[in-house]
Amino acid sequence: MTGPPTTDRPWDRDELPQGEEKVRAVREMFDTIAPRYDLVNRVMTLRLDVRWRKRTVRTLALPASSRVLDLAAGTGDLCVELARQGLRPISVDLSFGMLAADRSGAPRVQADILRLPMPDASVDGVTCGFALRNLVDLGTFFDELARVLRPGGRIALLDAAQPENRLMRAGHGFYFGKVVPKIGGLLSDGSAYRYLPRSLSYLPDPPVMLERLRHAGFETVSRALLTGGAAQLVTATRVAQ
After folding, report:
1. DSSP label at 136?
2. Has residue 97 been placed in a domain?
């Protein structure tokens, strides 16, 4: 069990980190929680995260052997599912601790996903799980997705969300605001899992986010709420040129 929160952790202060401090905080936080990241995910989502990842990969709807970047890949859950469904994943993450814990067997690259070390139009698809709110500039990320994807390529971006129903939103807020940090504290690092519900405030309103994707060069842009709004799945297709 971890001790009480410490104020020297930038992700656990009253004000959420911004800019380069946010980049460092996210990298250090995920390095810290990497060893037990999968266990905490399974417990705190009651294994719903497994179902969400399967749907994310299915929604790509890409032919077998398509090359797919999994960005902010963590310990490789989405890479495992991509391979299971016949695709060829590459794992990319900012956190060395997460890449070291990756057990997918996919090629691994440590990189800032706002500046991908991949050529233009070099991949068929992109997935990203639970990382949009951890990025410094979401618009730059969408532009980078458009750059590395071939025309007609697909993206599937999975993240946490807030239920639209008021009663469900209240229950969701209590669970993620009160229960999840206790689970995180028992199994891993409580301060990191206090950050989780607070970090949703980084995300823009859904219509703004979807319009920014269109501006980056995507069409058939859509957003689906999963499990009553506990998670969201954003999908889109790179405009054919």
Report:
1. S
2. yes
Single-letter residue type at 131: A
Half-sphere exposure of 232 (CA within 13 A, CB side): 19
Strand order in the sheet with 108-110: 108-110, 88-93, 67-71, 123-129, 149-160, 231-238, 218-226
pLDDT by residue (tens digit) across 62-116?
999 999 999 999 999 999 999 999 999 999 999 999 999 999 999 999 999 999 9
User: Is 2 a member of any domain?
Assistant: no
Residue 170 belongs to domain with CATH number: 3.40.50.150
Q: Give yes or no for residue 36 having a pLDDT over 70.
A: yes
CA distances, 127 to each of 41, 60, 142 (Å)? 18, 8, 12
Q: What does each C-alpha distance from 223 to 61, 93, 184 come to in angstroms?
A: 16, 24, 29
Considering its fold, how many domains does the chain have in total? 1
Question: DSSP secondary structure string, 41-84?
Answer: HHHHTTTHHHHHHHHHHHHH-PPTT-EEEEET-TTSHHHHHHHH
d(CA 232, CA 210): 12
